[in-house]
Fold these 4 entries.
Entry 1:
Amino acid sequence: MPPVAIRVSLVSAREEVLARVRSALGDSRGREVEVPRGYRSRDESSRAQVVERFAERVADYQATVRRAGSGQLAAVLAEACRERGASRLGVPPGLPPDWRPEGVELVADEQLSPHGLDELDGALTGCAVAIAETGTVVLDGGAGQGRRALSLVPDYHLCVVSEEQIVGLVPEAVGRLGEAAREGRPLTFVSGPSATSDIELSRVEGVHGPRKLDVVIVP
Amino acid sequence: MKGFPEAARESLQDSQLRRNLAHATRTIREKRAGVVGELPDWEQLRDAGEAIKDRVLLGLDGYLEQLEEAVVRAGGQVHWARDADEANGIVCGLARDHGVDEVVKVKSIATDEIKLNEALATAGVRAVETDLAELIIQLDHDEPSHILVPAIHKNRAEIRELFLRELDVDDLSDDPGALTDAARRHLRRKFLDARMGISGANFGIADTGAVCVVESEGNGRMCTTLPEVLVTVMGIEKLLPSWRDLEVFLQLLPRSSTGERMNPYTSFWTGVREGDGPREFHLVLLDNGRTATLADETGRQALRCIRCSACLNSCPVYSRTGGHAYQSVYPGPIGAILTPQLKELREGRSLPWASSLCGACYEVCPVKIDIPRVLVHLRGKVVDDERDKPVPDPERLAMGALAKAFSTRRNYERAQRLGRAGQFPFVRRGRIERLPGPLAGWTAMRDLRPLPKQTFRDWWRERERVP
């Protein structure tokens, strides 16, 4: 005797929700909507102005901004760590050799546990893109940036930004990040240290994410 | 459920609440105005935001399928939920499958909407809210009163007492910094050991499959990065067609919401990523009244909302009554058009009247939802709905009587004569301050002028008679 086929007549939630959408839209379904993109898509300022604006806007968030000339980076990083009292920093794979501050112990993040990350004084990373108008650095998990937990759990984030990574406006940054987005890389936009205004709207810098953020700009 | 007027009356009597609200709404309003004024192309961004969201709504079925495919391709799992019960069942099932008895949660109004925490509690799972304000609300068994700053109705002294009672701390000052630090220490242990995280989503990107959380404290990053399993509950309307569209919304949202150029943290993840973040990702797509809202051509624009809360802060009604009076997880002007629609007019029927129609909400809305227009439209729908009821209410009777009185000259003049005779017991010092029975509602807020001894028509007739 052939096996009895049991027909499940219940429509799946997926089918039902999609059917509801289609019936709700009726004739207007799929009608093309033109998106007017008359907003600014490029910052016409000079490179120096863009870099300057980025430094100002990051500083507005109570983050410290330093500039390091060529060959000075390791020394500037060491100075930042000294000021923050950070002697053990987590670092991602692929950290450039000239980013190693003297007198600071660097711990490679080879899948440290959350508790292991919590015991570090801070983390040193690069970034993928930075946005002048909003004072934002964006990490995409690429070389020298590490996984998301590295720049999150330790209480201090020291981030190196090179001038050519800085764009003027948000649309320029979104454009540059298109490839990383299509590859499905995790992206984190960081604008200043973590903050809250939940108690009587009075702003407190530093909650769960790093309470201190330093940015070093290199040519 | 109480109507808005009754619920608002309670809130209006709380002077502490009114002070907090006035301060909060004014401060955020001013900050928003400052950062919006910085952008010369704000209006162009709003136009683009409106059009992108309309494009999503009119092609929603296709974009949902596209998102599903992209998430699955990236190693995530997609679940569909017709309503709150179904969504809660999915999340509780996942918690059970992984044997967790505690989950960490990012602030999410969608999960408040479906009462996920209660469902988890019934299933024996403790949901720990990790946003500072949500934590305060949860510890005090209270309800959020604002989309962005849910604990705005509480002051620092109240929060200090709450933390001393509920958190494991010996001594605590009422300084917001110290209070924040206590919450940080309490939650850090939870984050580091959490096995399952639950979030909402600000955006889902159909073409890449990325899901986005916009936040300030870093609790969102913790919940979406550290646990092994991440579950995101997202309303089906929160889509954007493509990655590029973020160039608009990453400008509109933070400036409209917290009044910052950019919020501290915005996270995007796509499915699961080897060696970085959760090993399992589940996306729950929630309908729960959204498709019913979509069916209304005028009302569907409410689904453009990106939950910035600018309309709350600009609303003269909200800034006096606060959020609790709306009795919904969506308060303020947007709540007044979203709640009744999501509930298909079963709840929130008085909300379309909780507005003076001044239009301030429309003015600040980053996606140009014409809230006053939808309010008027919904008023019409509620009235039409009442008309179908077998037993008419006093308002309908009064309107019926008025319609009759105004239908012919003879009826009108007769009604005037009747009114003049009937008003006599209620006139005091040339005013009617109180009417009896079902008419009392009209005079509760205003005095009436009595009908004059001689009406215009009487006067006109008399004038004709004069030779």
Note: Residues 64 and 214 of chain A are 5 Å apart (CA to CA).
Entry 2:
Amino acid sequence: MTSTTLSPVTLHSPNAARRVLNVARLHLVNRVQIIVQPWLIMSFIFAISLLIGWIVRVSLSPADFAEANLQFGGAFGFFLIYMLVLAVMAINQTFPFAQSYSVTRRDFYVGTVLTFLGLSVAYSILITFLGWIEDLTNGWGARVALFSPDYFSSNLAERLFVTVVLFVFFLMTGMAIASVYMRWRVNGMLIFFGVLTLILVGLAALATFTEQWPTVGTWFAAMGLTGVVAWTLVPSALCTVAGYLLLRKATPRN
Amino acid sequence: MTAAIEVNSLTRRFGALRAVDDISFTIDEGTICGLLGRNGAGKTTLMQLLTGQDFASAGTIRVFGHSPVENARVLQNVCFIKESQKYPEDFRVKHVMTSAPWFFSNWDAEFAEQLTEEFRLPLGRKIKKLSRGQLSSVGVIIGLASRAPLTFFDEPYLGLDALARQLFYDRLLEDYAKHPRTVVLSTHLIDEVSNLLEHVLVIDDGRIIIDDSADNLRGSATTVVGTSEAVERFAQSRNVLHLDRIGGICSATLDALSPDDKHAAVAAGLELSSVSLQQLIIHKTSSLTSETELSA
């Protein structure tokens, strides 16, 4: 048919760092979902908060307004739920797609975890920075607390730590749960949530019967926000490992 | 010739179902091989096993001499876009074309661009908004432009119009001639691909029922047509794959006729015609089924 001859296929060892980096690029190739959309929603929440702040300012006397404190801390929570969804979709959709690009499960997982760690740090820096400006400008001149809610420490480094750790917790939990689904589908989901509920009810029962609720309350109070959030590093680490062990044997199916 | 794929006693069970049932075969490097079979015969499961997407219950798979499972050295030479491939939410065609070169080292961007134009694929459109034919052409373009040493095309014709089918046929042959590689074409539309194939694997109910070169298969069966009496007399001592009767006319598909046999048939006043690959596979599959039914 032709004079071109078949060049024998030689298997050369691929560059591991390059492969992992490509997985990160794959996650970021469509920026709408991972960057544009959450910040667009955040901008809208920000605009609405300022508007409400302005309405309050107009309707209150200057003396009363000086006392006002508009807490919109929930806006920050939206980001965390968004991260959970992002992590679920990474496993549920990008994983099967990466398999068609002949990416190994290991490379995919390492690349995905690194992408999410990077995302957590980048978004946390931005949120902490916005919170810092918020503090300096007396809540954007409207006494609005959006990025720097009252329950946050005034120490910026501590705030950055809490934000990063919360981001990581929601991302890694999302990945682990989605990996259960990828491995065992609906049955896996049912059993997982069933067992999780039983464990939580069991712990609650244990605290009730041993009359240890006050101890639990004291523990949370003593830990403070930063302490409690720091403890989520344990389930985050467990989820990260569990996610890999689950995905290692998972098959993308349609 | 070295083997691109070597499969030995491969089985994949899902509970009681044996989607792939103790099969063995090899596919030589540098050939176009058809993986044919009915819907649900086990084609996709087999390809998922060959590309490390699924795990064997028993048996061994060697791709370029090594197991493909979690083996980047092997997998970076493989391209397999499933017919029912899932894409990330809100992915557009351009996102696929941008990211594919990162994973396939032989990617030819110019060729991909040319194909995108020829298949009239709208780059800005979301994947989930594409028609079935356009979705197939995404897989076809990645498969062709990636130039992976082992490329799988899974139902590439699904939803493609006549022009696009011809285009795929032409581009595959052209590019295969310029850049020889191993191609596995999986489809249940046998006649569409039969002229492309050098080797044919037919899978039915998880088992390989035909594993032969396309040339052998094309020459392997002949249909003789004539009066019932003449056909029956001629077919008597021969292996009949299929028999049709309309009035006093009879047509029989016979296995493996020698040149002498053919002369004898013509002398007996019978008309000879060749059997298409599709017809042959239908006859072979159905005769196998009836044999199994008889023995059961």
Note: Chain B touches chain A through 50 residues (CB under 8 Å).
Entry 3:
Amino acid sequence: MTATQPQRIYVPGDSGALSVGADQVARSLEIEAQRRGLPIELVRNGSRGLYWLEPLVEVETPAGRMAYGPVRAQDVPDLFAAGFLSGAPHRLGHGPTALMPYLAGQERLTFARVGLTDPLSLDDYQAHGGFVGLRRAIGLEPAQIVQEVTDSGLRGRGGAAFPTGIKWATVRDAPLTPKYVVCNADEGDSGTFSDRMLMEGDPYCLIEGTTIAALAVGATQGYIYSRSEYPHAFRIMETAIARARAAGFLGPDLLGSGRTFELELRMGAGAYICGEETAMLESLEGRPGLVRFKPPLPAIAGLFGRPTVINNAMSLASVPIILAQGAAFYRDYGVGRSHGTLPFQLAGNIRHGGLVEKAFGLTLNEMLYDYGGGSASGRPIRAVQVGGPLGAYVPESQFDIPLDYEAYAKIGAMIGHGGIVAFDDTVDMARMARYAMEFCAHESCGKCTPCRIGSRRGVEVIDRIIAGQARAANLALLESLCDTMLNGSLCALGGMAPYPVQSALRHFPEDFKRST
Amino acid sequence: MSNSAAADPAPDHAGQVGPIIAAHRDRPGAMLPILHAIQRQLGWVPGAAVPLIADALNCSRAEVQGVLDFYHDFRRAPPGRHVLQLCRAESCQALGGLALEAHARAVLGLDYYQTSADGALTLEPVYCLGNCACSPAVRVDDEILGRVDQERFDALIAGLRGAGATA
């Protein structure tokens, strides 16, 4: 690299990196470079997903990008002094980023560009394979697009795992117009952050996937419904939509094809239930997020009563690569009927928390110990909640079960949106069970009784158990209550809130028998 | 609540929200965009906005109030100068979130949804900020902070109080 050419340095603009000081590091880098008279070009990339190393600074060198982290602002002068601009070793250095074991072992299809590129650069996006899928889709018949997605084996990444292609075919065949695409980026499941990372790190990928869905079903208007808890993702996504439209990737004449697709970003308002697809439609229409009865399916009568595809952000973000590389390419990843990859999110009490995109079929043991490096506290990992606040707590005896939809369903658990939250042996599982009921009570939309009342009674019953009042009778009552909620609730909130409770009871009964 | 609000005897809420409603009323499903826009500008949604929104969207006041009441985000009273949200979700709990929560409430002398006497901040719970790999997480206005221990929390509060005093 010549002296006149500014050297490129990457400092993530991802909100996780920002939350631990990435902006301060970026400022410090600029000041120190100026002081030394060294021209640098700062790129605010997405996060590579190695959060324990954030802020992770990368320097572009002839030998590839070299990683340093976690960097604090006060480390910057020392990094310059050590010659990090030429990739020199340093106590914070990790060598070439791409060779770091955490990344090298992953199968990044959906997250192929996240952390690599400048998130808002359309040139960068296209230089890394962006819009190849959309360009191909524009030349295909809608039925061919649907077939491709069906053949890929892609299933809904929000948790329900319904085959995406079948949903699309239903909307395509529905007679009413206009049709809508709604992207569910209301990532309310605690312990999950892949939607946020993608929106912040590769927003055009979500735009491309949503647009392909629109072409497949004949939709002319789309909405991305995201969360108010993600202010940073919202700003980036909003800018990306405006830029994509200005460049002809959205709007009245998609890439000169004469096809129209408009896309708008909407913000939720702190209601977890709006991640449920029919509650989301109510919210988009301007009402409280009360769950709708089904039928009719949203595919037949959805947003404003019109045929609507509602897909999770991760489902839609997986579509571009399926169209670009073909169904077989994607389908060949995974096991059984769980095809492709899932961006798993490792969090909680774990040393190396972050994003791990892998084909279905690896185990929690691999996830927790090979990637996660064990607990952050150094104590044994005792329980792992998989699949968000409605997911079961998995005990160590089940850490060797492959992460695939069917294998997890068989043990009364679910993979959901891919969140994995680890707890060490100081966790009180009776408290976690109580929290699950408390959360359900807090977030219940109130439409159906098992959820609205059941969750409140659940908190009370668990409180009595914890207090040691008529323990056996209250445990029996709790089981019965869980059964009512499971079988009588209108949607997955009340219908699955018993999962964490029952799994805690089943695998950690001793925690319900402690004297307080 | 009103005793912590800035010294503004009779703010013209109707005058303030009118143009906001006008800017969004023709969007499909305009209710949430309008409420968000009002709250972004005023920090809360004053009661005076309800009949105006109802009129603009051709619905009843009860429907507007129903939306306002349903969503946790919308405030029906003015907040402090800063809104501090503590994540209560599982990942943060797994890394000391409960202790941080107890510490915050004790240090601030506030329960959730209360505003400090000096009007500097309002404390709220939040259920996941998507920063689970940097737990525990808190949010101050539009800024997310991660790996927040008690020391970092105290420094944050001192900073907010200081900034509030000079503002």
Note: Chain A is about 40% helix and 15% strand.
Entry 4:
Amino acid sequence: MTYHVNLLLDEEQRSASRVNVGLALRMSAMIAAAAIILVTMTLFIESRDVEGQVKRSRAEWESLKPQYTEVLALRKELDTLRASFRQIETFRRSRLAVGKELTQLQRGIPEEIQLTSLHINQLVGNQKTGAGFVRSYEMHLSGRTSGESPKENVDKLIGYLQTSLYTGRVEAVFVPPNAYRKETARTTATGETHTDWFFELVCRYRPRSFE
Amino acid sequence: MNSLSGRFAFARKRGLTDVVGLDVGGVTTRVVRLKCAANAVTLVSADLFPRQVLPAVEGEAAVPQPLLLPKPLQALYAAISVTSPQASIRLLSVPGGPESLEQLNFNELLGLAEGAEYRIGYEVLASEGREQNILASAIPEKQARWAVALLSQGIPAARSLQTSGTAVLNCFSRELTARHDDVPSMFVHVGSDVTDVAVFFKGRLALYRQCMMGSQLIVKTVQQRFGIEEDIVPGVLEDDLIDASQPIAVAMEPFLRQLVLAREFVERKRSCRIEKILLCGSLLGAQHWKLHINRTMGITPEAWNPLATVPSLPDALSDRVKGMESRFAVAVGAALSVLEVEHDVSR
């Protein structure tokens, strides 16, 4: 049991601590406010710096962009050239079985037609699809025909060329302008007069295979 | 209470384990330091200091010099008790519930002088049915402010302010429980101008009386009767060369009558018999006090040492204190009240 009639007023009570709680709280509040201001200012300054850096980087990029585009184009060109070189190298190492082709051709020539020349050109061109280079051939044929229906003989040859598989994919077979013409009539030993027709043909095709 | 201290009031409710008890306003200033550890209270230090002159109620407001305590007496908190002839203490039985306390006119109940500003407080000791037993006390506002101003800086900080009459009850109570098995007992604390009388029944305060006489009245009586200097009076009272018992008996008569009335009141009301009378305080001419009390009450009073109520450290008492131990009941009681209040809160 205690007998304690305390006459001390609330406002007379104080902490024995050497640290004043009120002062400490006020100091803490001030320090916190100062810290917040400092952090805010730091963040603001940093954001300004970052903004400046972004601007500088953007300007630098703008100045470098043409060079970059040029580099890209050069790289693309380089890739194309490398591909070309690879193909050329391939071309150089590959051979077409011309003998077989000529044999096949011989079999399909109508008897009324006499070939006078045959010339094959190799065409190397860039494919439109961009898949690389393609190689096609152009065969120039010239010959002579006679008989009752020389035009039909030429058409037969054209048809053979178009349908025969030995040449692979035939792109076009045509008679160049003014390349189908009548030759001067000649008289044979038996005294008969013959009229020969001279023609030229161009056949563009891709060979079936290389060796 | 300002808002800031209010918010941190919870922090102050934590138990105090180290307290300085001060008894100011008397002939000397008595200071004790008590520590509480594991529910055991220990006396760390006790000392006497020069008198702090209590300001007069009618005079100008006085601002005292801050009380600087030596290191052994420096605790964080202090319980101040003020010994003042103008203080008023009453043990009251008030009809009605707790709500009736708000309606009481304490100025009237405490018999306070008209026109003077007092600081009044009370504590409910027991609530029996529709009756409240309260201990009420008051001291002049000027003296209360003066006492608080003694500890206005640094440590210790005031935690409690009491009248000496209420503070000393805690020392009585502890002594009774610790050494006298709570037998019905009467405690007499003799002050220089005021003497406190408390009767305990079954360990609880059953009666309190404030008698407006003290050791100074005895001194003055002997001085006047024999025409001697005041300095010589203590010697006269202590030896048997001059028989001063007759004038002292006359001077003490009103006080002795109070004792008789107090005993009769308690014995009749509580149906008990007071078995012990314990005496402490400014016992100048202790044998006269004992003699006259014995003659009147039929019980030989025991002079007891309040500092022995609690165990003390080896060098707790200064040389000044030796022989003056009985004067520390108020200081010890003030410190105990704060320590024990905190103990109660923690429970």
Note: The mean pLDDT of chain A is 84.
